[in-house]
Write a structure and sequence with these properties.
The protein is an alpha+beta fold. Helix content is 38%, strand content 19%. Strand 4 and strand 5 form a beta hairpin. The N and C termini lie far apart (51 Å). InterPro entries: Mba1 (IPR024621), mtLSU_mL45 (IPR051975), NTF2-like_dom_sf (IPR032710), Tim44-like_dom (IPR007379). This is Large ribosomal subunit protein mL45.
């Protein structure tokens, strides 16, 4: 079966879902993979930690404190701004990262049926993603005879991911926090900066890219409009598959000599997630930022994802109906 690879710097973990528990004052946060700015993150897919029971209990206590604070001085507009800011850097719901077909089991009739369903899920979600992008492009056309103002530069995504992948690993090895803040989302930059701070002062990391086994390929491409509709930015997200051979070592900070036994050379397959915001009025795109890494989507993962998306749609429907009454 497929196993998600960890970057050689040892910062990523196998795929885990982000879970945000409902707040008594708002139903917006009940979903998977969406973390509002005021809610502490329990887990994320890549460059993060696994969900622990203590983390879940801590998040529930944080939600209770958040509700008390909102009743004792925080304005609703401030809360909405904080939530909107956090929504700009989420992993978009419905992100499907296909596992290579050769890594699926095919030794039984049930396994083949599961594989066929998996292929159908992949095609269906790809169609939804394509339709969302086509709709946004159509909306950005001044007239039917003019080109869409929304240009997503699809062909530049893979080369950009390749360059950011190298830049990120070099910055991590060099403990370059400024570069991390420039090329990563705020949450990821904060997490990696904390990792850098925990290193031994007597050691220096070295990182080298030996080669890319294959050219990076885009395996997921999504576009979503953040609330409020018409005012919130578009969020463009891409997941890029990168196969590379990397070398990591350690040196003595005082002498500069290599530490014996610390040299590692590995061939890795990574799925790097990029995100950027697009101005809704001018359709001017921002810079690509690294959200993190992610594991392949298993059939079990997708079943959970579909339940989460159905719950989101139900809550949105109830909210719209409540507003009409």
């Amino acid at each position: 079966m497929y196993r998600s690879a960890r970057p050689l710097l040892g910062l990523a973990r196998p795929a885990a879902r982000t879970v945000v528990f409902p707040s008594a004052s708002s139903s917006r946060n009940t979903t998977f993979r969406i973390a509002a700015a005021a809610t502490p993150s329990l887990s994320s897919r890549g460059y993060a930690v696994k969900v622990q029971k203590a983390d879940i209990r801590g998040a529930m206590r944080a939600n209770v404190r958040l509700n008390k604070n909102s009743d004792s001085g925080y304005r609703a507009s401030d809360m909405e701004k904080a939530q909107a800011e956090g929504m700009k850097y989420i992993l978009l719901p419905g992100t499907f990262v296909p596992i290579p077909l050769v890594d699926h089991e095919k030794n039984s009739v049930a396994a083949v049926r599961t594989l066929l369903r998996y292929i159908w899920y992949r095609l269906k979600q790809h169609g939804k993603d394509f339709a969302a992008i086509a709709s946004a492009k159509w909306m950005s056309m001044p007239t039917f005879r003019e080109r869409p103002q929304l240009q997503l530069s699809w062909r530049q995504i893979a080369p950009t991911a390749k360059a950011l992948h190298v830049q990120l690993n070099q910055a991590l090895a060099a403990a370059d926090r400024d570069t991390l803040r420039n090329i990563c989302t705020p949450r990821l930059a904060e997490s990696l900066s904390a990792t850098v701070s925990r290193r031994r002062a007597s050691e220096v990391l070295t990182w080298e890219l030996i080669d890319h086994g294959k050219e990076p390929s885009v395996v997921s491409h999504k576009l979503a409009m953040m609330p409020p509709v018409g005012k919130g930015p578009f969020v463009q997200q891409a997941v890029v598959r990168i196969v590379s051979t990397q070398k990591l070592g350690k040196q003595d900070a005082r002498t500069g000599e290599s530490i014996e036994g610390a040299l590692k050379v590995r061939k890795l397959t990574e799925y790097i997630v990029l995100t950027r915001q697009i101005e809704p009025k001018t359709y001017k795109p921002g810079e690509w930022l690294v959200w993190g890494t992610i594991g392949g989507t298993t059939p079990e993962d997708w079943a959970e994802e579909e339940k989460a998306m159905a719950l989101m749609e139900q809550q949105d429907f109830q909210k719209r109906n409540a507003g009409k009454q």
